[in-house]
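Example 3.
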Amino acid sequence: MPVTKFHPYHGQNIRLLHDNMVAYRETSFAHALTFSEKALKPGEIFLVEIEKNELGWSGHMRIGLTQFDPSCKFELPQYALPDLQNMGKSWIFAVTKSHNKVVYSDAGDSDSVDREIHQSVLGDAEVIHTPQGSFSRSLLLPLRKLLSNNYETSVSTSSSDSALPTDIGSRIGIMYRVVGDTAEMRFIINGEDQGPCARNIPHQGGPLYAVVDVYGTTKQVRIIQLYCEGESDGPLQKEKVSPGRKCMKCRTENAILIIRVNDAFCKACFMVYVTHKFRATIGKSKLVRDGEKVLVAYSGGPSSSCLLHLITEGLSERAHKKLRFKPGIIFIDESAVLDNLIEDGGTAKDRIAELMVDVGYPCQTRRLEEAICLDQGGHLSEADLSSLTESYQASVCTSDPASPDDNLNKARVEIKALFSSIKSLTAREDMLNKLRQRLLMEVAHVQGYSKVMTGHCGTRLAVNLLSNISQGRGAHVAMDTAFSDTRYSDVMFVRPIRDFSSKEVAMYNSLHGVESVFLPTLTTKTHEGSSIEHLTEAFVTGLQTDYPSTVSNIMRTGEKLSTEKRDGENSNCALCQGPLDTDVGASSALNAVEFSSLISKKKNGRVDGCGDSATCCGEGDGSCHTQSEGLKKDEVMSVLCYGCRMTTKDMADPTALPEKLFRQISYRIRRSKMKEDIQDFLLDPENS
Amino acid sequence: MALRICLEFSGGAELLFNKTKKHEVTLPVCEKDWTIGSLLPWMRETMLKERPELFMQGNTVRPGILVLINDSDWELMGELDYSIKENDRIIFISTLHGG
């Protein structure tokens, strides 16, 4: 059976949503008649659920049957009751809070009729059979009733009974069945047949359409699909739109773009919608406080240009409700890694610097190699300048490759070596992301910014979510995609445009004339399968084209995930700072992998013992634990989360990690070793 | 009559078209009306400098590339069936990471 829908001809106050399966009364309480798209067949149940109510009106939804054909576009009356009923050929029933059971008293009816009234057309079985198909009885029940039935507690009966037929969630069905030469109409309210409420319907006189008057308190109803469950559960597919559509909001201007599933917007309404969405995302989180220093990460790309523009607009005097935080802008120059890819990188970077200055907030350019530069702390605070001109000069001087900064140049060489030692593009991309994140965090930390805003849009985050899972970062998915990322102790990452799709971003930029600078990245002009992230992006955008709800579905699913946060200095990954996910049970898959790699090592005859002479001070028995040279692969791995382990595994030599990282790791390992050694002598804090 | 139109590329799509963001082109005379559906193969033959698979997929643009016709979403203009008029401005924006 095809999907049951409302007929496109309806009362003037009705707007049909969700592929004509939801009827919403936009205003008033009248002019809200809707019909089934097709005539009902005998025994077919037309079921709607009340989705929204609006208090302040009297009366509720009316439902019934009519022989007026909505395709004839006959003049619709204001109400189903009494107007449509008075026009004849219509049988309407008002749903009320109680007393919906029909007591049909027809003079001349005998007792046998009374008994028949109470005999439900639905039967008693769990599966209800109608001529059009069978469905589970539970479909007729409101969600609340279903839940309380499942709990099977003694109190449940009272709570389920207290749900009124007019409440939200209530499911009301209409059907007719043939009795002799005529038909009788039945209501089914929340799984209960209310008995015949109209008889002697001349069903042979013309097809019977279901009619629903979304009247009074009832604001919105949805058709529940009884006969084609599988089809209606699938994601909504893109529809072909006819040219010249009007904006769905103001209904006067011509639409210029389609967003969400199939919503057309004009320019003015789209701008209001985007700005509102941005402000609402920040406002709802209640995280960004007045006067707070916020570091805005700017890459020159469309998303961060859009973010920057929204922030500037929000902070400007003409904004309706001014944003009140204090932004500083940062651009990270990744040329150390992307050097060979950028041909005219110089001019693009100059343009980025100009754009940042134009905005008029403190701005700075940092080089990616600073993330691994040794004397970083000192270097950063030196450049901690809040006045615009000075920081611009500072940025010019740091971005000048000829600056005699030995440490930075050394770091540049080091970072190049690091990236060339990583074999796969996937791991390189991952490493770049982690280093960029570290640098942002450190700059924010040193300069006293408590928040970092990044321009991740919804599409980007959906791609990240899926590719992170494929790369073994499932434990951090929630942090990586939520509005706020709190993995760092004193700096919070926020993603204010996470509800925007990349299309909305591109449209916003194009309509506002926001300039973005294109800088190639690792995967530019590579084939689709060059990295996991790139492949996932092709997958998500490909799906998004035909099923416009893909990105939001992925995002909403991601929101339901969360990671347990553990305390302690050693509970975070040394590279990405996410919580360590490797502390799992003995029978886990991770341990199995480690065990098998240990076995295969033994076969090769290379068992790494503690008494490796290279790492010992001279005793030879390993008792001193002195690390004269580097760390062993296993030790580095032990402080990394699973995802970062995969990335470092891809390096030719994991000990080729930058010296700065290396020092942190060995410091941590020494600390934990020491702690272990003196464990027995420590005073228990609870006893002292 | 030959049609003069303006094609613009951004978000990285320009890399495939000689790194030039703005192209003024004249479409040759053709018996049938020029539509986006016939423009795309023509662009592939005459304008694309490299890697056609990064711009097109089948007979349409690759998913992730947004098409604007005179500042309106092409989905509202009939997509491939839109018939091109004189002085139309068609923008191709790549929304993909790294172009």
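DSSP finds one helix and seven strands in chain B. Chain B touches chain A at residues 10-12, 14-15, 50-51, 53-54, 63-64, 66, 68, 71-73, 75-78, 82, 91, 93, 95-99 (CB under 8 Å).
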